[in-house]
Structure formats: C-alpha cells, structure tokens
C-alpha cells in the first residue's frame, strides 16, 4: 500500500482504487488506517491505495484533472480504476464492498426499492453526520461544527474543561491554529518519470 | 501583473482557474516585499476548512480589486518559514502590505465579500 502523496500516481488510470483523505483530521486519519487494514483482496493484498490529499492542487489535477483540492478536502474521494470518482457515502459503500470483513453488509447499499437506494441514503446521511461532528472530536482544521451539532460541541467542550482535558487557552472562532493547518506536513514530491 | 486563467507566475506556482496566485518564498520577496502599491497576502492552507469557506469570497474580491490591489496566497503548510517570519498563528490570515511593509492584518474567516473588501482596503484608506 502506497503512502505516497496524491500526486505520485501520474495521470494513468490506477490499478486499484485510490482513497484520498485529509491527513490533518484525526478522525479521517483513523478511518484511513482502518481502510488500510481492512480493504484486502482474496490474496490478502491491499485492495485500496490510501493517500493523503496533500497541499498541491496541481499534483491532484495530475492525478485526475477533475479533482479540485477544496472539494477533495470537503468530502472523501475514491478514484476508481474505470475512471469514475466516488464521493462521500458512495465511496464508503465501495470501501466496504472491498473489505472482506464488511462485505456481508455492503450488498445492502445496492438494494433498490421503487428506484431508490434506502440503505445507501442512510449511509450518505451517516457520512454527513460524521463529517459535521468532526470538529467535536478534535479536528481543528475541519472548521466549525454544523449548526445542529453546536449544542453537542458546547457540551463536549464544557465537559472537557471540567475534567481538565480541554484547552484552556482562549479559542479564536473561525480560525485554524497553525499546528492544525498542515504546518508540519512535508511538501509533496513530484512523481518520478516512469 | 496579470490574472489570466492558467497563468504561470514567475517565482511562484501555477494558478490555473484562480484569481489568486500562490507564492513561494522567492515569489513573496519579488512580488510583495519589492512591490510598491497596496498588496494583500492570504496565509492559508488547503486543509483549513475556514480557508475553503472564504475562498469563493476572496476570489470574488480579487476579481474586483485586480487592478488596484493584487491578492496573493501563501500556503503555510509549504512555507512554514514565511509563516513564522510574520508570526502567523493560524489560518486564514490576511496581511496587507504597502512598499513591502505590513500595514494591516485580518485574522480568521470573513464570510462575506463586503467584510473581506473592507479588511483588504481599510489599511490603505488613509494613504
């Protein structure tokens, strides 16, 4: 499994799906680690290439000209070998399909009822909820929690302060502290010529 | 200075479909420190959701101000030394320069064009 940055794949179609994830977000890192371990083919080899998005929009465009770095940071993107790009809940369903331990439930997401895919819709909703609450779980680069999640954010923050876990420093709203803004991230490497 | 799409910036990175050229340290020195008129620089990171939220607004303002006050972008993830030199504590941070000298600063997300425009032009109003 490659840990190389997003641009290291060149423009050719990937042999395996490529999952692009936000390396600055603790929740996303944990998910990426799970995918690395879970998504395996019949021979036990990794079936999904998991890569951090990085900070170079040109490197992403070299990977696929349709990729916009802001959109890729906003939602999980899975680049498929057939050239399609699966986003958010659709990407999650495909990852589950390719994970032997979870494949038992993956068929559900393809079930159609009156032309709709109710389980896929539920998964999409679950993705949005998780995405909205990421800031509550300590992702400082993920922005503010969604409006509906702000009371929960306040409860978690208050509880953390009371138990001494929360940061006591004054928090500036609408601002990503430098430590969470990719400060320590190395510059992307240009992929070597094939 | 031009802001055409797919522009290749001397001493900077390419900025296709982008009204805000990205500068590296050498580009910053050439375009900002040695620049004369009003110049604004956004210190940002692509992984910063607040920067992403401000991006369309900043693009709109950059188009409006293109002849009066060029706006550049510095990615703090790639230009940590530059961020350190200007005491950047987080992103997004807008710094306004005149004759290579900082004359104003705006920290945090400004979600509407009027606020961004005010932040970018106010430091030069008295000049």
Indicate the topology.
The complex is a heterodimer of chains A (about 190) and B (about 130).
Chain A: E1 18-21, H1 26-38, E2 49-52, H2 57-63, H3 69-74, E3 77-79, E4 85-87, H4 89-97, H5 103-106, H6 118-133, H7 150-162, E5 176-177
Parallel strand pairs in A: 1-2
Antiparallel strand pairs in A: 1-3, 3-4
Helix pairs in contact in A: 4-6
Chain B: H1 25-33, E1 39-44, H2 49-65, E2 71-75, H3 80-85, E3 90-91, E4 93-98, E5 101-107, H4 113-125
Parallel strand pairs in B: 1-2
Antiparallel strand pairs in B: 1-4, 4-5
Question: Notable features of this structure?
Answer:
heterodimer, A: 194 residues, alpha+beta, Glutaredoxin, 2 domains, four-stranded mixed β-sheet, 35% helix, 8% strand, disordered N terminus, disordered C terminus, B: 127 residues
Structural write-up:
The complex is a heterodimer of chains A (194) and B (127). Chain A is an alpha+beta fold. Chain A folds into two domains: 6-104, 3-Layer(aba) Sandwich (Glutaredoxin); 109-169, no CATH class. Helix content of chain A is 35%, strand content 8%. Chain A has a four-stranded mixed sheet with strand order 2-1-3-4, with helices on one face. Chain B has 127 residues and is of the alpha+beta class. Chain B has a domain at 38-125: Glutaredoxin, CATH 3.40.30.10. In chain B, 35% of the residues lie in helices and 20% in strands. Chain B has four helices and five strands, in the order αβαβαβββα. Chain B has helices spanning 25-33, 49-65, 80-85, 113-125, and strands spanning 39-44, 71-75, 90-91, 93-98, 101-107. Chain B has a four-stranded mixed sheet, with helices on both faces. Chain A binds chain B through residues 22-25, 53, 55-58, 61, 69-70, 73-74, 141-144, 172-178, 180-183, 185, 187, and chain B through 13-14, 16, 44-53, 55, 75-78, 80, 83, 88-92, 107-109, 111. Strand 5 (176-177) of chain A pairs antiparallel with strand 3 of chain B.
């Amino acid at each position: 499994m490659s840990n190389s940055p997003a641009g290291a794949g060149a423009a050719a179609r990937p042999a395996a799906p490529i999952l692009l994830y936000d390396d600055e977000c603790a929740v996303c890192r944990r998910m990426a680690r799970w995918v690395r371990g879970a998504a395996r083919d019949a021979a036990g080899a990794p079936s999904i290439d998991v890569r951090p998005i990085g900070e170079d929009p040109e490197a992403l465009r070299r990977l696929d000209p349709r990729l916009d770095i802001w959109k890729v940071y906003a939602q999980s993107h899975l680049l498929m070998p057939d050239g399609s790009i699966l986003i958010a809940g659709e990407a999650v369903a495909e990852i589950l399909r390719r994970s032997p331990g979870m494949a038992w439930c993956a068929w559900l997401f393809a079930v159609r009822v009156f032309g709709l895919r109710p389980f896929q819709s539920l998964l999409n909703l679950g993705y949005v909820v998780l995405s909205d609450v990421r800031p509550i779980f300590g992702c400082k680069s993920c922005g503010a929690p969604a409006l509906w999640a702000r009371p929960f954010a306040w409860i978690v923050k208050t509880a953390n302060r009371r138990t001494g876990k929360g940061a006591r420093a004054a928090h500036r709203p609408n601002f990503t502290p430098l430590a969470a803004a990719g400060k320590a991230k190395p510059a992307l490497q240009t992929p070597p010529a094939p | 200075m031009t802001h055409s799409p797919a522009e290749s910036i001397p001493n900077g990175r390419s900025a296709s479909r982008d009204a805000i050229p990205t500068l590296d340290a050498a580009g910053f020195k050439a375009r900002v420190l040695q620049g004369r008129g009003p110049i604004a620089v956004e210190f940002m990171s692509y992984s910063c959701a607040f920067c992403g939220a401000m991006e369309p607004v900043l693009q709109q303002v950059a188009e409006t101000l293109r002849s009066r006050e060029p706006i550049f972008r510095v990615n703090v993830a790639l230009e940590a030394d530059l961020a350190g030199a200007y005491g950047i504590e987080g992103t997004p941070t807008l710094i306004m320069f005149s004759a290579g000298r900082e004359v104003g600063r705006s920290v945090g997300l400004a979600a509407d064009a009027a606020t961004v425009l005010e932040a970018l032009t106010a430091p030069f109003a008295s000049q």
